């Protein structure tokens, strides 16, 4: 099966600053992939590269087996909902649906009108008069009615209140279940990832820190708590993600495929939030060292 997205050594540079660097990932088709990281980590840059809005500085990228933005056929496969849900404020909802039909060869008019009706919106309403949640839902409707094979969303609920955020994500997941397409979305809200995604990408300082299926990542990451111990005394197959120490106690988050048999450790499982925060809180010094080692 063709991957939804595949990147090898992908990088994007603005002037002297790398917004994304050495990105090597593969997202299999059929997943709902969530990408999380702090502001400025490179999330939006990666999504714009995937939609063909930007050209890479280094490395390569394919989306659904093709080059992003390479002609009408490739563009028709990919839907995109931007963070600011750009709509034409002076145009009505009906106008937006007509534009969608004219621009997208696989446009599903019935789906679009059904969603608008379910949302309780009037076709005559102007987009500029809609609430933030309604605008986000209209943008999602336009993306879904395109009938993409991959829908990309850039922090689609960042500005919404909790109720509107839940309704948006619920609508997205209902559409995924009904139409079976792949999704890649960015968020800084771990709760969104926990409810929806089965594939995870963590970006920090313009680099991918971890990527993979959520179930497998949770199964191979553990919290170890026990008497203070330096990291060089841990087995070689236990990759240290994060560490905290007191005078007498050490707490590590480690990644390993092997069972942890040392009786000195209390071993506990991680939530998805624990996992994400462990990678996001790795010391800046460690990340700077990685930058110095890898050109």
Automatic annotation (TrEMBL):
Top-level division of the source organism's lineage: Bacteria
Keyword DNA repair set for record: no
The entry's keywords: ATP-binding, Nucleotide-binding, Transport
InterPro entries named among the record's database cross-references: AAA+_ATPase, ABC_transporter-like_ATP-bd, ABC_Transporter_VariousFunc, P-loop_NTPase
Keyword ATP-binding recorded: yes
GO molecular-function terms, A-Z: ATP binding
Name of the protein in its database record: ABC transporter ATP-binding protein
Signal peptide: none
Any one Pfam family match given in the protein's UniProt record, by short name: ABC_tran
Taxonomic classification: Bacteria, Bacillati, Actinomycetota, Actinomycetes, Streptosporangiales
Domain ABC transporter: from-to ranges: 5-230
